[in-house]
């Protein structure tokens, strides 16, 4: 389903302005959120550039794999006639939130303390 919707995604992103509005964490605090680089990572993944995708955002590949697995599971549940297609327990939501928080902190610590900025957007500020 994602591959079929990709042309629509490309069309809709072409309608966005080239300069996106300012994002507080990125533009004023010079920090990355856990989602920064996600669009670049997804684009690289769809172009089959795996290393570039992982460099842009490490969470995109596992998220795509997890979503594909959830979709397959939902398809099997639908064929069995079950009503709840996406049963996700509370503990899993908490785990996902913890992973996002840890990844957001870790990527900023690596940039500020060790100068590792794979996106190349904010290293200039912290490494001067």
Question: What this model shows, in words?
Answer:
The chain has helices spanning 2-15, 24-28, 38-46, 50-56, 60-79, 90-114, 123-126. It is mainly alpha-helical and 128 residues long. The longest helix is centred in the C-terminal third of the chain and has 25 residues, at 90-114. The chain is globular. The model has no long low-confidence stretch (mean pLDDT 88).
Q: How many strands in all? A: 0
Q: Helix amount, in percent?
A: 55-70%
Compute the gyration radius: what is it? 18 Å
Mean pLDDT: 88
Estimate what percentage of residues fall within beta strands.
Answer: under 5%
Number of helices: 7
List SSEs in N-to-C order.
HHHHHHH
Layout of helices and strands:
Elements: H1 2-15, H2 24-28, H3 38-46, H4 50-56, H5 60-79, H6 90-114, H7 123-126
Helix pairs in contact: 3-4
Q: What's the short version?
A:
With 128 residues, the protein is an all-alpha fold.
Keywords for this structure?
7 helices, globular, 128 residues, mainly alpha
């Amino acid at each position: 389903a994602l591959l079929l919707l990709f042309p629509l995604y490309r069309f809709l992103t072409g309608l966005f302005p080239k300069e996106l509005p300012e994002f507080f964490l990125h533009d004023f605090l010079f920090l990355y959120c856990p989602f920064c680089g996600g669009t670049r990572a997804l684009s690289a993944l769809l172009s089959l550039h795996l290393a570039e995708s992982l460099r842009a955002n490490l969470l995109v590949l596992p998220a795509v794999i997890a979503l594909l697995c959830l979709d397959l599971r939902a398809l099997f549940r639908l064929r069995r006639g079950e009503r709840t297609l996406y049963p996700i327990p509370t503990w899993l939501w908490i785990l996902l939130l913890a992973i996002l928080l840890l990844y957001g902190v870790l990527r900023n610590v690596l940039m500020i303390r060790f100068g590792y900025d794979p996106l190349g957007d904010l290293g200039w500020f912290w490494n001067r």
